[in-house]
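Supplementary Methods S3. Input chains for the assembly prediction are listed below.
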Amino acid sequence: MIASASPPLVELNQVSLAYGEGRERTLALADATMTIAKGEFVAVVGPSGCGKSTLMKLVTGLIPPSSGEVRVRGERVTRPIKGVGMAFQNATLLPWRTTRDNVMLPLEVVEPHKRRLRAERAAYFDKAERLLASVGLGEFGDKYPWQLSGGMQQRSNVCRALIHEPEILMLDEPFGALDAFTREELWGIMQALWLERRFTTVLVTHDLREAVYLADTVYVMSRRPGRMVKIRKVELPRPRTLETTFQAEFVDIVHELRERIQMEHG
Amino acid sequence: MTARQERLARLAMPWLTLAVLLAAWELACVLLEVPEIVAPRPSRVFEVIVQRWDLLLRFCLETLWTTMIGFVLAIGFGLLLGLAIGASPFVYSGLYPLLIAFNAIPKVAIVPILMIWLGIGALPAIITAFVISFFPIVVNVATGLATIEPEMRDLMRSLGASNYEILTKVGIPRAMPYLFASLKVAATLAFVGSVLSETVGGNRGIGFLMLSASARNDSATTFAGLFAIAIMGVAVYAACALMERRMTRWAFRGELVR
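Predicted C-alpha cells for the full assembly:
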C-alpha cells in the first residue's frame, strides 16, 4: 500500500465531543482515534446517530473537540481548516444560481481563486464546464438546480466540493437520498474522479456496499457515544465495478462489517 | 374549455365578482329605499367620481406620495433591521421583544403624539405609514436569514467564508422572496397608516377629504374616497407583485415563471 507509507494527513487522538452542558450534556463521540494518509479514501460506517457527522465537523475544524486533539498536516486544528471540500446528503444548491454558478461558488470565496476570478473568468468558466462534463452534466451548466433530477443535483454538489481542488474531501451520506440505480452509478463517477485526482476522502455512510466499493479503509463506529470498534482495510483492485460487488471477496467484507454493526444493535 | 379560454376566464373573474357585488349593492339600495346619507348607490358614487375627479385626484396624489415615502422608508429601515436581527442572535434577543411590544400598540394612539411633536401636515402621515408597515418587513427578512440551512453555513465556513460573505452570497438572496412577500402586506398597511393619520387630524390627503365630506353629510364623496384608496392599494400591491416576479423568479420554481 502506497497510502500507508506516506505520513498521515489527518490524525485524531482520543477525540471526544459532548453537546450541551450540565445534566443535558450528551456525549456524541468518545475516544475516536484514526489516522488518514494523504490520498487515502476512508469510509466511516455505523448505526444512525452514532456521531458520524460530528466526526466530519471535527476533522474540518467546524467544531472544536471537548477533549483529545485533531491534527491536520501535523498542525493542531483550532478553527476551520483550509483546502476542504464538503458535500452533504441534502444537495444545498442555491436555487437562484445556475448549476454552473453553484459549482463556481467556492471560487468566489477561496483564495487564490477569489483574487483571480474576475481576471480569469473565462478559464475558470471552462474549468467548471470540464468538471461538469466529467460527471455527465456537460449540457446542464445553464440549468437551475430545481430543473435537475436528484442524481444530477448530487453530481453538481460533488463538483462544487471539488472545483477549488481541495486536498481533503468530506462526504456526508451524499448518495443517501438517491434511488439504488442512481446511487450505484454515482459510485462509479466518484471512483473515477478519485482515481484521477487522488484527493483524501472521508465518506460517512450507512450503506456498507457503498463503503466497501469506494474506500481503502472502512471504520466501524459503535452506537452513541460513537467510538471506533473496527478498522477494515479493503484491498480489492481498482477500478472496482458493479461486477466487483457480486464477487465473493467483496461480499465477505460486507458480511464481516454487517456482523460487527449487528452486534451494536444487539 | 381550452387553455386559452380558461386563462381569459380567470382574468375576467375579479371583474365579474366586482360587477356582481356592485349590482347587488345597487339593487339593495333601490329595493330597500336606503337613504343616500346612509349608503349611497354605487352608480351615485361613480357619478361623484366623474364629477369631482380633479379634486379626488389632487387629494389622492397627496396621500399617495406620503404613503410611498413612508413605505420606502419602511423598506430601507425594515431591511436593515431584519438583516441585523436575522444575522445576530444578540440583536435578535435584544430587539425582538421590544418590536413585538411596539407593534402591539394601536397606531391610532400615536398619531396625536406625532401631532403634538410635528404639527399637522404630511410628516405625521409619512411617519404613521412608516411605523405601521415596517414590522412585517423586519420579521420576514429576519426569518429568511435565520432559516439558512445549517449545512450551507457549514459549507461556507469550511471554505473560509467570512460572515459578511455568508450574508451576501447566501443570506440576502435567500431573504429576497421573504422580503417581497412582506412588501405586499406592508404596501397596503402603509395606506392604512397614512389615511389613519389624515383622518385623525390633518389638513390634506384623501383621509381629510373623506372626513370633511362626512362632516357635511356628503356620503357619496366619502365613499368615492374609499374607492379611491382601494384602487391605489390594489395598484401598489400589483406593482410589488410584479417586482417580486421579476426579482425572485427562481423562488417560483418553473411552473409560475412566465
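Chain A touches chain B through 26 residues (CB under 8 Å). The helical segments of chain A are 52-59, 99-103, 113-116, 121-134, 150-162, 180-197, 208-214, 248-265.
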